[in-house]
């Protein structure tokens, strides 16, 4: 499920993460080019994250715009306790969560629901011990659409975690930081989200002639 936002986004991401301390210094000095590189690198992922909280692309765009303003205002207070990316995504998550509350869409992260998960023995080091065959290669368009639908149908908390881990490529610690989750909660949410997406894929491919 790891999906890239495209070669251009990847190049921009590499540019802004090559020397984070120098980048932060440039941003604080008002380097417009450095800021535009940062915007190019992170905006697509920020928008995807916002869309896991809010209803419409227009609201997600508003969240991203407000988040960038928050980044500019907060740069002097950035202490480097987390990566710059984690700090920015946490700003997005906080703003989007507030907007979601206004839209009456939020749910407490502590509620996981009672749905069953797949056998934990099918995982090794929190990864699939036997990933379904389609995940080993590039999914065709129909299967990709199925994955998107399966992720979109997840409970909010699970959708957020799988979005950050398997789409944006965040590590467990980063996700815990961005979403203010314990490691245990993050692991449970990810496990259940992956279980449901895997089940959807297996049902789909099992029914194909």
Provide the fold topology.
Elements: H1 7-17, H2 20-28, H3 32-51, H4 57-74, H5 84-102, E1 123-124, E2 127-128, H6 141-152, H7 156-167, H8 172-179, H9 183-207
Description:
This protein is mostly helical and 209 residues long. It folds into two domains: 7-102, Rna Polymerase Sigma Factor, Chain: A (Orthogonal Bundle); 120-207, Winged helix-like DNA-binding domain superfamily/Winged helix DNA-binding domain (Arc Repressor Mutant, subunit A), CATH 1.10.10. The protein has helices spanning 7-17, 20-28, 32-51, 57-74, 84-102, 141-152, 156-167, 172-179, 183-207; strands spanning 123-124, 127-128. It has a two-stranded antiparallel ribbon. α1 packs across α3, α3 (32-51) packs across α5 (84-102) and α5 (84-102) crosses α8 (172-179).
């Amino acid at each position: 499920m790891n999906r890239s936002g495209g070669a251009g986004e990847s190049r921009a991401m590499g540019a802004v993460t090559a020397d984070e301390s120098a980048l932060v210094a440039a941003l604080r000095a008002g380097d417009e080019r450095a800021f535009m590189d940062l915007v190019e690198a992170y905006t697509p992922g920020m928008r995807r994250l916002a869309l896991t909280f809010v209803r419409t692309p227009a609201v997600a765009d508003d969240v991203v715009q407000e988040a960038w303003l928050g980044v500019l205002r907060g740069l002097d207070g950035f202490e480097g306790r987390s990566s710059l990316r984690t700090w920015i995504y946490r700003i997005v998550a906080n703003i989007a969560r507030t907007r979601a509350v206004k839209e009456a869409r939020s749910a407490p992260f502590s509620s996981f629901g009672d749905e069953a998960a797949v056998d934990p023995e099918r995982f090794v080091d929190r990864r699939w011990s036997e990933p379904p065959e389609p995940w080993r290669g590039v999914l065709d368009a129909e299967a990709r659409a199925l994955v998107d639908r399966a992720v979109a149908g997840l409970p909010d908390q699970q959708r957020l975690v799988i979005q950050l881990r398997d789409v944006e490529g965040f590590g467990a610690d980063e996700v815990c930081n961005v979403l203010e989750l314990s490691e245990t909660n993050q692991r449970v949410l990810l496990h259940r989200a992956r279980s449901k997406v895997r089940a959807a894929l297996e049902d789909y491919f099992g029914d194909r002639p």
